[in-house]
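Please, structure for the following, as tokens.
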Amino acid sequence: MRTQTFSSFRTTLPKKTRHVNASPSPTPSVTQKPSSQSGWDYWARVYSEDSQNSAPSRDVRVSDMLSSDTLVRAKLLFLNVPGLPTAHKNIILNLIKKEIREDISIQDVVVVPPGKWFLNFYRPEDALKVFKVFNGFNYRGHTLVVRFCYPDGTYGDETALTELVQCSNNAKGRLFEQREIVQDTLSSECWTIAEYEVLQKFETELVNLLKTHAYLPYHNVLQSMRTLFSNRIPSATSSIFISEALTQWPTGFIRMFNRNVKVVSNTMCLSTSSYYTQRIHDSAMEGGCSVHRNSWEPMVPEDIRSDIQLIQYIHSFLGHFGPQNIDIDAPIRILAQSLRGTWPKSAEELASLLTDISSGVAIVNRVLYLSSNPVHHEKIIDNLATYQDDCTDVYFLPLSSLDGQKLMIVDVEDL
């Protein structure tokens, strides 16, 4: 029997052939993945082309022009201000608009915590209006204190701002604003004619010394001036008065000339120097400025604005220097010269004011004492003992007693 396998019945199929065109087709290009280096090159070309194609804009926005500091013609400093929330600028502007009720152009408002506002004005007359209304203004339980700020960092009162308004209307206005002229920093009321002349000579020599340098170390300047005016070696500049003043109170003596000479940290420079301007700018950015003063001073004299502050200062002053003869001693006259605003400019007027506003200060034979200081009590006795030949004089001294009443001293024996 003949058998066949299943495979013998399987039909052989023709091989499937692929149709080939006569014309050859283009080979498809394979895109390579760019490397990281080629990617950086690509974006570098993109940004470089954009920067080359876009021309720099020369348009100046009006808002940028108005915010420029070169347009500021007056600046006010507000002290003893209350704390404000985040939107402090709008609150201050609304307060001024509400109280002034006039068209006031304010360039900028800068709040420096704690307790300082700086207001920049386009026009000095606007600053004067705000000064008159808000100096002594009661706001949220705080009595505001307003000062006029000179470009060199010193402060002025309403009279100085009024002069600026007057000067801004003539050709001398810009000279006054830029402080390019040397101002008279001394008052002749405090000094004799000879003392006043030697003080002017001292200021001239000090300014000439600082003109040749951007700044000098503070103690080096003091040593140079002491040597120049020393009375040990007779010379044209020798002065016993200057030597004693630099020995007794050098900080206060140099401070008398602070309109032209500035002490910054441990350096000294002119108020018109670029170094001082940069230091003021840096201090404003940091939110504070270091004040050069002695350790016993509660504040600097130019910051005294009220009777309470003056009494506080004079107690520290007399406690440090002791009793002061208002005709002879240099420290009390230096203090009178250093006060700003409407305070007395002579030692005699200052002593008279102190006895009027405070019972803790007494004048005996033109010497100023603290009536509550035991050491001063002994010196009062010594002072009166030199005049014991005239026992009919009646001295009213507000010495402290057990019942808190003033004692009337008729004779030295009563002490």
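The first helix runs from residue 36 to 53. The radius of gyration is 39 Å.
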